[in-house]
Design brief:
The chain has about 240 residues and is of the alpha/beta class. It has three domains: about 140 residues, Metal-dependent hydrolases (TIM Barrel, Alpha-Beta Barrel); about 50 residues, Urease, subunit C, domain 1 (Roll), CATH 2.30.40.10; about 35 residues, no CATH class. About 40% of the residues lie in helices and about 10% in strands. The longest helix has 23 residues. The two termini are about 25 Å apart. The mean pLDDT is about 90.
């Protein structure tokens, strides 16, 4: 992999306009090339474990070790939904477990450190915006940027009482705690309800799409099926 990256780098084909996803099991030489070229990186806490990509461990530690602050990516919403709250939680536990195993097995002083809550929230917001090349528009509440705001109800029972804002958002909050969402200054969710969406029409379109895909794949729906046959046998 490093050789292929080096060849691309020498041709001037790597730069900040590239976004690399996953980056699992990338050797140090490859990370050095990405850093030198200014390539943007996002890592996938749930996806790498869900699909067993390489060793199943997302590449946050390797990125940080090489001076790259990656954004968090959900990667595959069709498998486990788009939930950045869960992405942050899985990132924390995966990173911590990896660090403890490395420390206990190897006794290395260079074992992965526990990711702090503020760092995880940064990866899900500011670093994600940087990865997408939109850091001048979104990612933080800064004068001149687009007004993208998520309001969380800290009075909800699962969040109360809150002793630390970062830890509350990262370790306790979930999508049900979102009261209001503003995108570009326009309120799209208020009092926990999505605005301006025809839910009936949307669900009908989703059902039609799912039925088409199942029929095309030859799959007979069974909500209690233990495996998606014949999809599984076709692999």
């Amino acid at each position: 992999m490093a050789d292929e990256l080096e060849a691309l780098h020498q041709k001037g084909l790597l730069g900040p306009d590239n976004i690399f996803n996953h980056c699992t099991a990338l050797p140090d030489a490859g990370w050095e090339i990405l850093r030198e070229a200014g390539v943007r990186v996002n890592v996938c806490p749930r996806s790498d474990a869900h699909y067993g990509i390489e060793d199943g461990v997302f590449a946050m530690q390797a990125a940080l070790r090489h001076g790259i602050s990656p954004g968090l990516s959900v990667d595959n919403e069709t498998s486990y939904s788009g939930d950045m709250f869960m992405e942050m939680k899985v990132a924390f536990y995966s990173q911590r477990t990896t660090g403890m195993q490395h420390k206990n097995c190897c006794g290395s002083e260079q074992h992965p450190l526990t990711l702090q809550s503020n760092s995880l929230l940064k990866a899900a917001t500011i670093d994600g915006a940087v990865c997408a090349g939109l850091q001048d528009k979104i990612g933080s509440l800064t004068p001149g940027k687009q007004a993208d705001i998520v309001l969380i109800n800290a009075e909800d029972l699962n969040l109360y009482p809150s002793g630390n804002a970062f830890s509350t958002v990262v370790h306790a909050a979930d999508r049900s705690n979102i009261d209001t969402v503003m995108i570009g200054g326009r309120i799209v969710k208020r009092d926990g309800k999505v605005l301006g969406v025809d839910s009936v029409r949307l669900r009908a379109a989703i059902d039609e799409s799912r039925e088409h895909l199942f029929a095309a794949a030859g799959y007979v729906p069974d909500i209690f099926a233990e495996a998606f046959l014949p999809l599984e046998s076709a692999q």
